[in-house]
Amino acid sequence: xxxxxxxxxxxxxxxxxxxxxxxxxxxxxxxxxxxxxxxxxxxxxxxxxxxxxxxxxxxxxxxxxxxxxxxxxxxxxxxxxxxxxxxxxxxxxxxxxxxxxxxxxxxxxxxxxxxxxxxxxxxxxxxxxxxxxxxxxxxxxxxxxxxxxxxxxxxxxxxxxxxxxxxxxxxxxxxxxxxxxxxxxxxxxxxxxxxxxxxxxxxxxxxxxxxxxxxxxxxxxxxxxxxxxxxxxxxxxxxxxxxxxxxxxxxxxxxxxxxxxxxxxxxxxxxxxxxxxxxxxxxxxxxxxxxxxxxxxxxxxxxxxxxxxxxxxxxxx
Length: 317
Hints:
By secondary structure, the chain is of the alpha+beta class.
């Protein structure tokens, strides 16, 4: 539900602050009856939480995106969009600072110490890049939103019985330099039960430049951002299932990112017991003023404003 609320908050903010965005729509494609059934599960779940979604006729899909192949079914999310994420982050930074916030860039957290289990506040020791000395900050509250480092940071504070294991899913993206084909809709293959990702899908930036990804490669090092060339052939094969006229030689390695996960379960929520690992956003029992945000991956950006509201409520209501 954070994603549903956050999406509308995001669109409202973009309109109000002139942050570039576009409602590109999203298609999820089925190429056979089994995938069609997977789409039906996604449709039923989306309807149960009031997400706008519909199946569109194959004839309509072909007329709108003639280069996209869908043999069995097309499920459309009409309110899905893209945003200039850098403009969005710049706005948040400026807004934060205008309200009196300070940002310490190139600074690492060394230790976090609860004072009397947080009742006396929190002592945070940091070290700036190029410095051999630690600085100390004391705060009334602590919000752990450290992304890939969130679980290790949480484990350094909580007792061992409440420790979690971090998992790191590297995803490689692939650029496309040919002018054709060039769909204007976000294209996703049908979800696979238990898969840790959403498949190598087609996305685009605000300029309309398309790229493909991410795939899923489990890694132990959250700093390992090397793009694995050996994964390109499998990605191309998956892309060709929905974009058969793609020019394979024009698809190149681009960049990679790493998603913080709390398990190797499904990336898609469709029903109870499907192995889906949701975000963990909670006020930690036994510690005053401590909120943990763990496993915040996609759709964390879409949910971000709603997450902020939730954290505020946890701390101050």
